[in-house]
Specification:
The complex is a heterodimer of chains A (about 120) and B (about 110). By secondary structure, chain A is mostly beta strands. In chain A, the strands form 2 sheets. In chain A, strands 2, 4, 5, 6, 9, 10 and 11 form a 7-stranded mixed sheet that branches. Chain B has about 110 residues and is an all-beta fold. In chain B, strands 2, 5, 6, 10, 11 and 12 form a 6-stranded mixed sheet that branches. In chain B, strands 3-9-8-7 form a 4-stranded antiparallel sheet, with no helix packed on it. A two-stranded antiparallel sheet of chain B has the order 1-4. In chain B, strand 7 and strand 8 form a beta hairpin. The chains are: A mainly beta (about 120), B mainly beta (about 110).
Chain lengths: ~120, ~110
């Protein structure tokens, strides 16, 4: 079945630094990938839709300059949290959509802690 | 526009008892409906999905869900709960175009020995 690999699974960084999270579709091509943020005990909130070869579409309230998304190939999307602050600490999850009604495959998530 | 409502943020059942997690949706187009399970500090795993065809959908780990258009519901059930079923469960909906994906707020399932 479809597999999405997300890396790293956890990261601790200092306030003010940037962190890059990778999302790869291992056995299929994903023209569209999605980035979610999940706070403890809450649901997943869609941050942005990443389209291969074009600019990402951000949800209302998400700072595009802070959360940089790059989808340079059909199998890789990256999310860079720039100038991270403690309030950016969260669980970030990506997903990719296969062609057709096959649903969405999710990565294993990245636990970001900013200290 | 689509949205999902999960009734009950916490559900507790005894081991061996019926599991029923409720999900209602609203959609202006024929929906695709999904149930995902999430274990602590992990991503989401697809349990089952409804796209077209048979309205009773069987998924992994003994779970099933029935799409009821008249009730705009897609409740998740399992006849007999197992301790390993304790997790967070999310219902989700997307349109047939699949351009966006909306999650419910999640239901935390506790299984009591």
């Amino acid at each position: 079945g479809a597999v999405v690999s997300q890396h790293p699974s956890w990261v601790i960084c200092k306030s003010g630094t940037s962190v890059k999270i990778e999302c790869r579709s291992l056995d299929f091509q994903a023209t569209t990938m999605f980035w979610y943020r999940q706070f403890p005990k809450q649901s997943l909130m869609l941050m942005a839709t990443s389209n291969e070869g074009s600019k990402a579409t951000y949800e209302q309230g998400v700072e595009k300059d802070k959360f940089l998304i790059n989808h340079a190939s059909l199998t890789l999307s990256t999310l860079t949290v720039t100038s991270a602050h403690p309030e950016d600490s969260s669980f970030y999850i990506c997903s990719a959509r296969e062609t057709g009604p096959k649903g969405y495959t999710f990565g294993s998530g990245t636990r970001l802690t900013v200290v | 526009a689509q949205s999902v409502t999960q009734l009950g943020s916490h559900v507790s059942v005894s081991e061996g008892a019926l599991v029923l997690l409720r999900c209602n949706y609203s959609s202006s187009v024929p929906p695709y409906l999904f149930w995902y399970v999430q274990y602590p500090n992990q991503g989401l795993q697809l349990l089952l999905k409804y796209t077209t065809g048979a309205t009773l959908v069987k998924g992994i780990n003994g779970f099933e869900a029935e799409f009821k258009k008249s009730e705009t519901s897609f409740h998740l059930t399992k006849p007999s709960a197992h301790m390993s079923d304790a997790a967070e469960y999310f219902c989700a909906v997307s349109g047939t175009a699949g351009n966006q994906f909306y999650f419910g707020t999640g239901t935390s399932l506790t299984v009591i020995p």
